[in-house]
Design goal:
The protein has 323 residues and is α/β, with parallel strands linked by helices. It is built from eleven helices and twelve strands.
Length: 323
C-alpha cells in the first residue's frame, strides 16, 4: 500500500520550532518511502484563527524546504472550513444511527460534575453523561427553541488498543476514562475529532504523524473510524518540544516563531540541522537542508524507533544561528 501522509498546520497562531519538528518527521516519513504527502489547513477553530496565519504557515513550510503533493488537479492543499457540507453529511449519518446526542451542558457544569474524587481525568473533564438519554430528534426541538447545544458522540466502553510506531501498544478504556466527546456545535462548526477523521478517510491518509499530546485523541478518532466502518491509519506520535521549564512551547518561553527566526537572519538549514541532531539523523548540530538530510540515507523506516522518547528542550537560537 502506498504511503499517504499529511501536514496539518492550524492557523490559530504562528508555527514555531515544535511544529517544525513534527512537520520534518512527517515529511521524512513520507519521502523516505517515496510516498505521498498532502497539506491540510485545520482552520475550524474560528474564534482563535488569526488573520494571515494560513499564508504564514505555507510560507514557513516553503522556507524550511518541506514540500507537499497536490490534493487534486485544481487544488494544491485542503482548507477544512471549505468542507463543512461534507462534515454535515457525516453528522447526519451518526444522528440517524443514534450514535450522537444533543448536549446543552456548559463547560463549568461539566467541570463541576467531574470534580468528584473518584473521577480519573486524563485529558480534561470527563463528561458525566447528563444529556445522553436524548436522541438525535431532540436536537431539532432545541434548534426550534433557539437553544444552543453540542453534538456528543457515544464512545463505547471497553478496552481499546492501538500500536503506535514509536510508543508501541497503547490501551485504554476510553468510554470510562475519556467520556463522550463533542463532534459538532449546533451553530454549524464541526469539532476537531470528527473533521480530521472525515478528512483523513476522504483523502486516503493512511499514516498520521503528530505530537504525543494527541494520543488521547487517537482513542476518540478510532471510535469514529469504527462507527463509519473505515480503515484506521497508522499512528506515530512524537515527543513535544518544550522550554527550559519542561512545559510545551508558548509565549512564556519568548519568541519561538519560525517567522521570527527568519526575520532575525537564522537560516532554515540551521533549524533543520538542530532538529535533525535531536532526531539522531546527524551526529552533531550543523546546517543542513531537508534534501541533504534525505540524501544521507539515515531516515530509514526503522529510524523513528531510535528517536528519543522524552520531549526536546529548546532554549532558542543565538544571533549567529546556533542553538
Amino acid at each position: 500500500m502506498n504511503y499517504v501522509g499529511r501536514l496539518a498546520p492550524s492557523p490559530t497562531g504562528a508555527q514555531h520550532v515544535g511544529n517544525a519538528r513534527t512537520f520534518l518527521v512527517a515529511w521524512l516519513a513520507a519521502r523516505q518511502v517515496s510516498g505521498q504527502l498532502l497539506l491540510r489547513i485545520e482552520d475550524l477553530d474560528t474564534p482563535r484563527t488569526k488573520p494571515g496565519a494560513t499564508e504564514q504557515a505555507i510560507e514557513d513550510l516553503n522556507w524550511l524546504g518541506l514540500d507537499w503533493d497536490p490534493t487534486g488537479s485544481e487544488q494544491t492543499f485542503t482548507i477544512q472550513s471549505s468542507r463543512e457540507a461534507r462534515y454535515a453529511m457525516a453528522i447526519e449519518q451518526l444522528k440517524h444511527r443514534n450514535l450522537i446526542y444533543p448536549c446543552t451542558c456548559t463547560r463549568s457544569e461539566i467541570e463541576r460534575a467531574a470534580s468528584a474524587p473518584h473521577e480519573s481525568v486524563l485529558d480534561g473533564a470527563i463528561y458525566p453523561g447528563t444529556c445522553s438519554h436524548h436522541d438525535g430528534n431532540h436536537g431539532d426541538d432545541l434548534k426550534s427553541q433557539g437553544i444552543p447545544f453540542a453534538w456528543r458522540f457515544r464512545i463505547p466502553r471497553g478496552i481499546v488498543s492501538f500500536e503506535d510506531e514509536r510508543l508501541g501498544i497503547q490501551s485504554l478504556d476510553a468510554g470510562r476514562l475519556l467520556g463522550d466527546f463533542v463532534v459538532a456545535r449546533s451553530y454549524g462548526v464541526t469539532a476537531y475529532q470528527l473533521a480530521v477523521v472525515v478528512d483523513d478517510h476522504d483523502f486516503g491518509i493512511n499514516h498520521v504523524v503528530r505530537g504525543n499530546d494527541l494520543v488521547f485523541s487517537t482513542y476518540r478518532q478510532m471510535a469514529l473510524y469504527q462507527a463509519f466502518g473505515w480503515d484506521v491509519p497508522a499512528w506515530l506520535h512524537m515527543p513535544l518540544v518544550v522550554g527550559l521549564d519542561g512545559r510545551r512551547l508558548a509565549k512564556r518561553h519568548g519568541d519561538t516563531r519560525l517567522s521570527y527566526y527568519r526575520e532575525q537572519g537564522v537560516t532554515p538549514e540551521t533549524i533543520i540541522g538542530f532538529l535533525a541532531k535531536s532526531l539522531g539523523l546527524i551526529d552533531k548540530t550543523e546546517r543542513i537542508s531537508t534534501m541533504e538530510l534525505l540524501e544521507i540515507g539515515r531516515a530509514t523506516p526503522d529510524w523513528i524507533h531510535r528517536t528519543p522518547a522524552e520531549p526536546l528542550v529548546f532554549a532558542g537560537f543565538s544571533p549567529s544561528g546556533t542553538a
